[in-house]
Structure formats: C-alpha cells, structure tokens
Amino acid sequence: MSAVGARWRELAWGAAVTLLAPLVVFRQMLLSGFGLVPGNVEDGRLNAFFLEHTWGWVSGKPLHRSLWGLPIFFPGGGNAVAYSDVMLSFGPLYWPWRALGLPADTSYQLWCLAVLALSALAAWLFLRRSVGLTPPVAALGAWLACCAASRLHQISHSQLLPLFFVFAGLGGAIAWARGESRQARWTASAVTAGSVVAQLWGGFYQGLFLAVVLALLTLLAVALPSTRTPLLLRLRADWAALLVVGAIAGILLVPWVRHYAAAQREVGRRPWEAVLPMVPRPASWLFVSPHALAYRWTEQAPWFTRLPWNFEHAIGLGLLTTACVVAAAILARRRLAVLLAVATSLLLIAVTTMVHGHTLWRLVVRAVPPLAAARAISRIGLLLPVAAAVVLGCAVDGLRGRWRWLALALLVLCAAEQLSDLEVQRRDVQRFWEEDLRRRIDPHAEAFVATRSSDRGGAMRVHLDAMFAADLAGVPTVNGVSGNEPPGWYGLQWARVRNAEAAAAFREALDRWLATGAVAADRVQWIRLPPGYRGVEGERHRHGYGGENRPPRPSKRSGSSFHGRG
User: Where are the beta strands (DSSP E) in 352-455?
Assistant: First the structure.
C-alpha cells in the first residue's frame, strides 16, 4: 500500500470512532427524533442551564451580563456560578447552535454529540501519537476511554463528559518529555498548562484529576531509573520556561481562584462527613453501572446496594475488562506507558479507597483543606478507562499472529461490555412546564419566586422550572439550585406551601431573605403553583409513556400573586 493510502486508512480509523461514538451512545436521543434529552430532569437540566448562561453572557443578555452571576437566588446570585462548574471553556461547542437560532434544549443535545465526538477524536490522537498504538487499536481504546459505562452513568453530570482537554494535557506532557528541541518543549509545556487551565474553566473535577495525574506521572518518572536522568536533564534545561508557562497559567486562573475562594468563604468548607459517603470503597471498583446492558443485576446485588450514595460509586470497568486489564498489565509490564498507567492507577486507588472506615484521603484533605471541595472523590474512578485503554492497547499491539487476533477480539468485547442506556428526559414535557411557568410571571416584577402546593414534582424541579422560566421571561428568580446555596436561603429550599401555616412560614423566610439585599417585598411576585403541577407528567412516567412527546394540557393560570398580596 502506498504512503498516501496508508495515511488515509489511518485517518479512517480516527474518523470512524469520532462518528460512531456519539451515534451509538446517544442512539435513544437520535431514534426519538431529538424528543429525548440526555440526563435526568434534575441534574441533567442544571448543567444545560449553566451552558445556557455562558451563551447569555457571550451574547450580552441582560440577566447574564456577569459571567459569575446567575439570575437565581435573587438577590444573592452574584457569585452563584462558583457554587458549581463554570462550563465556559465547553461553550464554543454550544454557542454556534444558539447563534443559528436553535432552542436551548436542542443546542444542548447537539452539544452532547459534539463533545463526545471531539473527545473520541482527542482520545484516538493521544493513543495513536503519544502512546504509539496502531490505528485500529487506538480507535478501540478511544471508545473504551470515552464511552465507558462509568462515564455514561454520569450523563446527568455532563460536565464530566468532555475529555479533549484531559487528553491534550496528557499528550502535551509526553511531548515535552520527548521533545528534542527547546521550541518543541516550550510548545508542549504551553499545551499542557493551557489544557489544565481550560479544563478548570470548564469543569472542576477533571481539572483537579488532570493536575493530580500530571504530578504523579512526574514523580513516578523521577523515581524510575530508566526515566530519571532524561527527565532531570529536561527540567534543568527548561526550568525557566516552565516557570514562565506556570506563571501565565496562574494569571489566567486568578479570576477562577478568586471567585471559588469567595464562594468557599461564603458557604464554608465542607466537613469530612459531607465527603465521607462518596469516598470509594473496595466494592466501588467492581460496581458497574446498572445502566450498562450487561449489568442490570448490579442494582440489586447486596455487595453494591450497601454502598452509601451508591450512584456515585458505579466506577467499575466490568468483569471482563478488569480481568483483561490485569492480564494485559502482566503481559506488557516492560512497556513504560503500561508501567506508568498501572502505577498511577494503583496509587490513586490506594490513596482514595476506604477500608473499615480508614482512608488516606482524609489525611490528604487535612493537609490540603480546599480539596474537600471535591466531595464526590469517587469520580476519580473515571480515569480508569483511560488507563485501561493504554494498558490493553499496548498489550494487543505487542502480540503477533493468532494471539494478536484473539487479543483484538477480547478488546472488542471489552468495548462492547461498556454499552449502556442513558438517563433521558422528554424535551417537550420540560418545555411545557417551563413555558407554563413563564406565562405566570409578571414582566414588571423585580423578581419572582415559585412554590408548589403539594409534594408532586419535587423541589428541585420547581427550582429548575423557575430558572428556565426566568431566562425566558427576562425576570430573575428567588428560586435556585446548584452545588451549594447562599447563606440565609435555606428556608426557601423546599419551595412547598401546602396550607396557611406553611404559607406564613415561607413568607417569613422570604422576607428575611429579601431583606439581605434590601429588596422591597411587594416588588417580588410569589407564584403559588396549583396542585396539578407536573401531575400529568408523573402519570405518564408511571404508565411508561416515555416515547410520547405530546405535552399535557395546560393548567389554569391561577395561584399567582405578588408577595404580600393574598
């Protein structure tokens, strides 16, 4: 085969995984004609709202004129973005769809497709160029890294879906270690630092994990005799350049650090008791998402049901994939990439896992208290599919003849083991309730607050409906939901008023909250939603009409009044 033909064949493997990953993963959404949106009705919509805020900021919408302020928790939402993830660096894959005039939910659906496609391409390039895998093995590894059941299990936390900055950072670090010319190493170090910065401006957890992995890889490379001398020579030659690059990265992170530090001072540091339920246990590393097609049974398995907040503990690779990774690690143990991937993974598992109530992670948090912000530290298990792709890929490419074909077949089965269904929500149902609430909002009100009159719907759905309705109406809301809440707002959390006594208590809490911002109570509209709020949706879910997109009949426009008037 000619060089040109080989090049096109190589690119075809990269194109294949780039196109197939989003088509297979989001097949429910595509087969529904975009009637289903990835993620659940709560957290899934919350991340979509944060993305929409970045568009509002870029496009100059009045409610979103401050990047760090949100039109929620009125009048205390001035730094509300710092209660969760900024999502700013993920915005360029969302903004073009909004600029074309597409609705927010459709733009979010297209964002999910674009994010997974770009992540798969970045994974393929990393495995092909940085690790040195053959094109087809790199394609299978990219699928495993980006479409792992553990990652898809977290689809409602879609800030964990983008991986392109993670792979760019890892690839940059490897390119720096290998670079022969000073210019090449300068460029590689800038890519690495820039990737960490960009990831933090998108999502906190993977930015933290990327920084931790880069630090561990550096320490391991210094510890290994085969890499110690070359690495120290690189550091000696490039220390000044690395300091400059690090300083620039630090400057770019100053606003990020300042706002998150302010939020932490405002709400206080999380106590260890808040972190404890999401510290991984030994069973966590074997617990595969019950959304995985081959692992429905794990939801009822006693070993896994005993895990606290077990949703966050579904970080297992799968029985076949785990066994293959162990065998591959033994087989390819002399490969430097395998040694580093295995050692880094084992160190992270050893430091974070809790056994009989004891974990080294508590000592780490005591030494570096801001790390308590990473409450769901079990999510560090989302790095395992990346390490597995490296280990399995190196082992497969190290074989020849029939053993290679057998190993390739096993690698395909490992990829297939990750096939999962996604949590989804019905687009038109959410549109209906958001629009229903928007129609109740007085455009002349300074702000509004919505409450439910029954247990139906749930507090988080009320808050999210209010947040999207606020954006549609151009009127901020007292309602809100995020990773944290401002001090003094807690009395409004449940957004439920079922009787006169509850109404009096809610009004008192609302008055206290508005007083913190010197807001006149009679300028804030109180919308008391009727008992039928979200009732039809609940019935449709109960009877399993998940594919039906016809919205429920509108409820009567009643129960709305300015606070202080009836």
Answer: 424-426, 447-451
